C-alpha cells in the first residue's frame, strides 16, 4: 500500500467507528492488566464472563493476593489455561504490591517483567490506559496486516514494526483497535467478508469474495 492508500484505509475505518475501544471490560489499570493476561488464547467474550464477578470482588493487587490462587481459579476456570494464568496473576499482583506500591507501571520495559505479561499485553495496557501509541499485534492484526498488504511480516514483531513505521496521524492511537475489530468481524480467518468490507478496493488479497455466499 502507498502512503495515500494507508491514510485512506484508516480514514474509512475511523469514519465507520470514530471511537474504537477494546471489548475487554475493566475498571482500572490493574484490572486491565489482569483481563489482557487472561485473554491469551481466549475470547474477550469468555474473559468478560469470567471477570465480571471477579472484578466486583477484586479491584487491587492486594485484594487479588487476599483472594488467593485457588479463589482466583474458581472465577476463571472457564478460561483456557486457567491454572497457569491464575499462578501468573497472583505472582504479578505480588510484584506490583512489593515493587510498585500496588500501581501499574507505565513503561513496556517494566510491564513485560511481570509474569504472564508479554509485549502484546504490555502494548494493550499502554494504549488503552496510558494513551500511548502502541500496536498490540494479536492473531487478528497479524492476519489483517498480511492479508491486506498493510503490514506484512512473518512474526508479530515484524508486523508491529511495519505498523509503527507506516500508520499515520491522526490514526496511530486507535489503529490497533480498528484492525482488531476489522479482523474479528469483517476480515475473518476462514472466510473474509469482502462483500461488506469498507476498504476492499485498497486491499491486496487476491481471493476476494465480492458476493455474499448464499445462506450467509
Automatic annotation (TrEMBL):
<dbReference type="InterPro" id="IPR003651">
    <property type="entry name" value="Endonuclease3_FeS-loop_motif"/>
</dbReference>
<dbReference type="Pfam" id="PF00633">
    <property type="entry name" value="HHH"/>
</dbReference>
<feature type="binding site">
    <location>
        <position position="187"/>
    </location>
    <ligand>
        <name>[4Fe-4S] cluster</name>
    </ligand>
</feature>
<keyword id="KW-0479">Metal-binding</keyword>
<dbReference type="GO" id="GO:0004519">
    <property type="term" value="F:endonuclease activity"/>
</dbReference>
<keyword id="KW-0255">Endonuclease</keyword>
<keyword id="KW-0004">4Fe-4S</keyword>
<keyword id="KW-0227">DNA damage</keyword>
<keyword id="KW-0408">Iron</keyword>
<keyword id="KW-0378">Hydrolase</keyword>
<keyword id="KW-0411">Iron-sulfur</keyword>
<feature type="binding site">
    <location>
        <position position="197"/>
    </location>
    <ligand>
        <name>[4Fe-4S] cluster</name>
    </ligand>
</feature>
<dbReference type="InterPro" id="IPR011257">
    <property type="entry name" value="DNA_glycosylase"/>
</dbReference>
<keyword id="KW-0326">Glycosidase</keyword>
<feature type="binding site">
    <location>
        <position position="194"/>
    </location>
    <ligand>
        <name>[4Fe-4S] cluster</name>
    </ligand>
</feature>
<comment type="similarity">
    <text>Belongs to the Nth/MutY family.</text>
</comment>
<dbReference type="Pfam" id="PF10576">
    <property type="entry name" value="EndIII_4Fe-2S"/>
</dbReference>
<dbReference type="InterPro" id="IPR005759">
    <property type="entry name" value="Nth"/>
</dbReference>
<protein>
    <recommendedName>
        <fullName>Endonuclease III</fullName>
        <ecNumber>4.2.99.18</ecNumber>
    </recommendedName>
</protein>
<dbReference type="InterPro" id="IPR003265">
    <property type="entry name" value="HhH-GPD_domain"/>
</dbReference>
<dbReference type="Pfam" id="PF00730">
    <property type="entry name" value="HhH-GPD"/>
</dbReference>
<keyword id="KW-0540">Nuclease</keyword>
<keyword id="KW-0456">Lyase</keyword>
<feature type="domain" description="HhH-GPD">
    <location>
        <begin position="38"/>
        <end position="185"/>
    </location>
</feature>
<keyword id="KW-0238">DNA-binding</keyword>
<keyword id="KW-0234">DNA repair</keyword>
<dbReference type="InterPro" id="IPR023170">
    <property type="entry name" value="HhH_base_excis_C"/>
</dbReference>
<dbReference type="InterPro" id="IPR000445">
    <property type="entry name" value="HhH_motif"/>
</dbReference>
<comment type="function">
    <text>DNA repair enzyme that has both DNA N-glycosylase activity and AP-lyase activity. The DNA N-glycosylase activity releases various damaged pyrimidines from DNA by cleaving the N-glycosidic bond, leaving an AP (apurinic/apyrimidinic) site. The AP-lyase activity cleaves the phosphodiester bond 3' to the AP site by a beta-elimination, leaving a 3'-terminal unsaturated sugar and a product with a terminal 5'-phosphate.</text>
</comment>
<feature type="binding site">
    <location>
        <position position="203"/>
    </location>
    <ligand>
        <name>[4Fe-4S] cluster</name>
    </ligand>
</feature>
Amino acid at each position: 500500500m502507498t502512503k495515500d492508500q494507508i491514510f485512506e484505509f484508516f480514514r474509512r475505518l475511523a469514519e465507520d467507528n470514530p471511537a474504537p475501544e477494546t471489548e475487554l471490560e475493566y475498571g482500572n489499570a490493574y484490572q486491565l492488566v489482569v483481563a489482557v493476561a487472561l485473554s491469551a488464547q481466549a475470547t474477550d467474550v469468555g474473559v468478560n464472563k469470567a471477570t465480571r464477578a471477579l472484578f466486583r470482588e477484586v479491584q487491587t493487587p492486594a485484594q487479588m493476593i487476599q483472594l488467593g490462587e485457588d479463589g482466583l481459579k474458581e472465577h476463571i476456570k472457564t478460561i483456557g489455561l486457567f491454572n497457569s494464568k491464575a499462578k501468573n496473576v497472583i505472582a504479578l499482583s505480588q510484584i506490583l504490591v512489593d515493587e510498585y506500591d500496588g500501581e501499574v507501571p507505565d513503561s513496556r520495559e517494566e510491564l513485560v517483567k511481570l509474569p504472564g505479561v508479554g509485549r502484546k499485553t504490555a502494548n494493550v495496557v499502554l494504549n488503552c490506559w496510558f494513551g500511548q501509541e502502541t500496536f498490540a499485534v494479536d492473531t487478528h492484526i497479524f492476519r489483517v496486516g498480511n492479508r491486506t498488504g498493510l503490514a506484512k511480516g512473518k512474526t508479530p514483531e515484524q508486523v508491529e514494526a511495519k505498523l509503527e513505521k507506516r500508520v499515520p496521524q491522526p490514526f496511530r492511537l486507535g489503529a490497533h483497535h480498528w484492525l482488531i475489530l476489522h479482523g474479528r468481524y469483517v476480515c475473518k480467518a476462514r472466510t473474509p467478508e469482502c462483500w461488506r468490507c469498507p476498504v476492499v478496493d485498497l486491499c491486496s488479497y487476491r481471493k476476494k469474495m465480492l458476493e455474499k455466499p448464499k445462506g450467509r
